[in-house]
Specification:
The chain is α+β, with helices and mostly antiparallel strands and 238 residues long. The chain has six helices and 15 strands. It is elongated, with a radius of gyration of 24 Å.
């Protein structure tokens, strides 16, 4: 996932963003671009991150945000996350804009709070925009104005096959198409994978280049002695 976020130095809040209550205010110290870069470098790569209290994570079955709203704070275990990119986009003190590529489970609010702590003045997030999720990039998005002005086919509309392109494509040979329509998974010999696939991998079964079914590659299945794929959803009818 990729994000563009803006942080404000010198002010820390209980939610780590601008919707929370201010808990500390401090003077923003002077620092150079190199010093800011050195702080960011500490958070690049594989790091441990403590989730915020205002989050949907649960403690003994109770969401943390509910405890936080009751004024309670409980211990949270640090979790491993990966920050593959942390780039300074703009500095207009007390505001700093950053671009972040990170693993699932990363809290940008916490990252910003940690940066503020390293700069010894505190910080909170004032803006956050997701710029990429998986294969989908904000550059390919369509605005509401473009949709309203569209005539005929909607711009930017993806086929189901294109929307699931992160999963390997497996062409189904003609002799297995009719049985696939009836819900019978093909044998591996009745398919032509676009590349190597591994046991348990989710794949797109295609007929004539179009999505026919989503399946999991399961050679030599023990529960059902037919086919080498476990069908999840079939999209072609009889």
């Amino acid at each position: 996932k990729s994000y563009r976020a803006t942080l404000k130095l010198g002010v820390a809040t209980d939610t780590l963003d601008s919707e929370g209550q201010v808990i500390t205010t401090q003077e923003v110290p002077e620092f150079s671009t190199d010093q800011l870069e050195a702080v960011c470098e500490k958070f690049r790569g594989d790091i441990m991150q403590v989730p915020p209290m205002f989050s949907a994570l649960k403690k003994n079955g109770v969401p943390l945000y509910k405890l936080a709203r009751e004024g309670k704070e409980v211990e949270r275990e640090a979790r491993p996350v990966t920050i593959s990119k942390l780039e300074i986009v703009a500095v207009d003190l007390p505001f700093i804009t950053i671009d972040v590529d990170c693993s699932k489970g990363t809290y940008i609010r916490t990252l910003i709070d940690d940066i503020g702590a390293e700069l010894a003045c505190g910080a909170h997030m004032t803006a956050l925009r997701r710029t990429r999720s998986g294969l989908f990039d904000i550059a390919d998005c369509v605005s509401l104005e473009q949709l309203k002005a569209a005539e005929g086919e909607l711009p930017g509309l993806l086929s189901m096959d294109a929307a699931l392109a992160e999963h390997p494509a497996v062409a189904v040979k003609s002799e297995a198409v009719s049985t696939l329509r009836c819900g019978v998974p093909p044998d591996f010999a009745q398919t032509e994978p676009a590349g190597e696939i591994s046991d348990g991998q989710l794949v797109r079964l295609q007929v004539d280049g179009s999505l026919a079914a989503m399946a999991r590659f399961a050679p030599q299945r023990s529960k059902e002695k037919r086919g080498d794929f476990e069908l999840i959803r079939v999209f072609i009818g009889q």
